[in-house]
Here is the input.
Amino acid sequence: MGPRSHVRLVVLHVLVMSLLLSLGGRLWYLQVMNGAHYRKVAADNRIRDIVVPAVRGQILDDVGRPLVRNRTALVVSVDRTALARQDDGGRAVLRRLAALLGTSYEKIVLKIRLCGPGIKRPCWSGSPYQPIPIDDRVDSRKALQIMERQEDFPGVTAQLEPVRDYPRTEGATAPQALGYLQPITQDELNKRKGLKVTGFSGVDLIGRDGLEAIYDGDLRGVPGDRRVLVDSRGRVTGIASEQPPIGGGALVTSIDAKVQGIVERALDHAVKDARHRGTPADSAASVVLDVRTGRIIALASYPSYDPAVWTGGISQDEYDALLSKEHGQPLISRATDGQFAPGSTFKISSLPAAVKDGYSLHGIYSCPSSYMVGARAFRNFEGESGGDIDLHRALVMSCDTIFYRFAYEEWQRDGAIHPVKNPKDPMMKMAKAYGFGRRTGIDLPGEASGRIPDRAWKLAYWNDTRKADCKRAKTGYPEVAKTDPARAEYLKAISSENCVDGYVFRAGDAANFSVGQGDVLVTPLQLARAYAALANGGTLWSPRVGKAVLAPDGSVARRIDPVKAGRLPVDPKVLAFIRSALTDVPKSGTAAGAFTGFPFDKLAVAGKTGTAEVYGKKDTSWFASFAPANKPRYVVVAMVTQGGTGATTAAPAVREIWEGMYGLGKNQNPALPGGNVPDRLPSLAPDGTVAAPPGFAVTSEGKEPATAHHRRRR
Amino acid sequence: MQSEYGGAVGRRRSLPARLLASPARRLDWALILAVLALSVVGSLLVYSATRAGRAGAGGFLEKHILNVAIGLVLGGVTTALDYRLLRAYAPIVYAAACVGLAVVLTPLGATVNGSHSWIVVGGGFQIQPSEFAKVGMVVLLAMILGEPRDGEVGPGRRDILLALALAGLPAGLVMLQPDLGTTLVFATVIIGVLGMSGAPKRWVGGLVGAGASLALAVWWFHLLKPYQIHRFTAFADPSADPQGAGYNAQQARIAVGSGGVFGNGLFHGEQTTGHFVPEQHTDFIFTVAGEELGFVGAALIIALLGVVLWRGLRIAREAADLFGGLVATGVVCWLAFQTFENIGMTVGIMPITGLPLPFVSYGGSSAFADFVAVGLLQTVHLRHNPYE
Here is the structure.
């Protein structure tokens, strides 16, 4: 090679070596200077944190029978993010999936769209980043196809997941009390720190109503953490560390599945019979309460529904049905959330109020067929006249006019339409002392407070409605006048009266209130605890459904006890007087017809009928009772709206419940052995099996574990 | 360099002395040992990258060892050939390379990673003519520009134009595949051989300038419309990963960086096991070294490649004639560029193109071509002694 080449060779030499040196320098920079950084990045790269779901705890009845449990289901889920990455947005995959699952592409698309304003169900209310369950009733053959043919189903998973199961033990469903689960929303996630999204459809649900909502934190458990090593395709190649999940606690309730079943059936029968008599009987509720402890033994609402509709995503039709008036809004728990005029059952409050105000407990009072309250005649129920009677008899035959008189006279003493500075309002005060007009504080969400229409309420109501009333006072009711000019005239007069001084607490208000009519509203639960207070000598409970939470290892995580919410300001003698009067109601009083042939020697049931008039509707039928009358143990309250009189509809239902609880009449097997509910808790073995408390038995497991045949077809 | 011959030339020599004087003794053993070391390391890395069964994987190590063995034979045959005879074969090698490159563009060719650069031979084997074209390119350029000349310092304009024209054909065919990496190797070889042949500065400078302005033009391409950029990125980076731009580069850097000073240990690379880096047994084999062997191991590979290049440059300098020198220069330019580009893209200082790491990456055609290249160096080396 020539000299020129030699020079250039040296240049090439230098060039080559400097290139290699720069590679080495770069390597030094990456590996030695930034090695720690890249080590961390690499770890993030290949380690995925997987939240391992904790199995949600069961909900048990007082002896350990399951009200809600879990079953494993093969759940097919779709990952929106994975679909979005596909060329066609996942259309082809969803079409194949629809064909395999025997549904339509459109239906799947509806299910996996995200909920938002203006979007009807079905839609996904959970996080868009977690797999959305499409079907939780997939047979294993189809699930296997999905798992094995992942190339055909990218973004679709099929895995075993626990889902909620409702075994209908002893016929008990109580869906309104138990509540339901729904996918957790981002809002709920933000509010409750520490909740982890697992990506498992059965676990990223949150209790949305009933016990599932109130005890969500206890039932949910603590998800575990598994740090896995993954390859570039996300396939797991090993486990780096693992912290196992802590299962959710089991909630032991004081609900007795047998009694609950009896109550639900009794309501069904009552509604059917009432309808047979030609009254709409559009809803009903019943409460069974332990008067000594304040615990709920049964809580039912009619119409009811199958809680299985919530599992695996609810369709719009199903959801609409739960909320529609046409279907009677079965989602509403009427026992706690429904508010109704109590009718004569309210007299257990009005009577001691009058006695406290000075009327003699043992006096004789006239019970005319009507009583003039101011200028208006207030008629006795069905216009009957009772003659001169004592207060015992007044309760037994449910005389209203005596109470009208008490209320009217008290109202006059309070200054009539020009009230004195601090009116005594004895009946209002007593009603409040009985716990009406405020929430009982039961461990269920959405409880209504009822209404005591006192002077303050009247004023507030007047402020709200004055504008409309004043307008009507001028314009009248032309639409009513077309058909009923007299009524239109009457309505106009009322409107102009209300416009001017609608806030005034009138004589009629006082009279109506005394017999549980007019604007007073109570929940069946409020009435039940009022009767419990009457029965137990004056203790007003804040009732509880939950009894204890059992940890997965069987230990008692916490006990839940009813709280004393107050004492009735009533002389025990007066309470005893009322109890004694109510003892005669089923024997010889208003409920005698319903209790014909009842073995009072075996179980002395005491109670009070109520028939509340509702403007434009049929009467609300009530029966509130307790037994055994001499040593009360339980209160049973039943209510049927548009059900007719308390004696004809609610009282027979209550009788059926008592018979079932104590094994009377046709029912030879008492639901409550010896009339007792267990004081002690059922025990939970670490393997999940439940043993009844001593003296009780977890007998027949109800029906089979719920499977497809319980479920309505979609 | 002459010491090994100095005292050994004599009428009667002892057996050891004769053995010492045999052609085998005069091979460049440093070069051979470096290449063998790289092949062993390469085999281990290929095994490490393919061991954790990727779908359809298996048998990579065996095939790699077979490739190396065939490569050694090809290298040995090339070594045995008198390189001066190559001058005669050069047109044939060149023509064969061009035919091969033309064939891949026909339906006979197969597309791998977006580049249409393979011929499927059947039996699971494919050949990549562009690898052999590198050999053809080196030999042809050396032949034209290394013609013995009297008085002239370097090749004349006619020779240069002829060389550029003939080199342009395979380069064009390779660009049509498209295979940017091989095109750049060709460009480097052209400039290197031309420069070393003693061509006037204006030619060398002109070519370097032309190449630079071409690269610059490409750089400015991103001012063009999106579809053109797309075409360019596909051209520049045929293996562009569907998971997103820069994924390869990023994963490669993470894998190398996480190795630290001493690495995670051979077969203990977790990024490698997890297949985070695509094409890890071929173009991105260096990431395995980086992660598992750390700076120490990775730098050793660079050093071994440095030995190969250093020996190559030495052989070029001491070649018996200009042709031999240019052959060696061409080989060095080829291997040097490929080394720099491959490791450079792995550590993020060069754009990503589909070029294997010489002697290390998995791949039959490239291994064969690499060993033939070593054979060329050896044959030039063996015959640099005028007394031979």
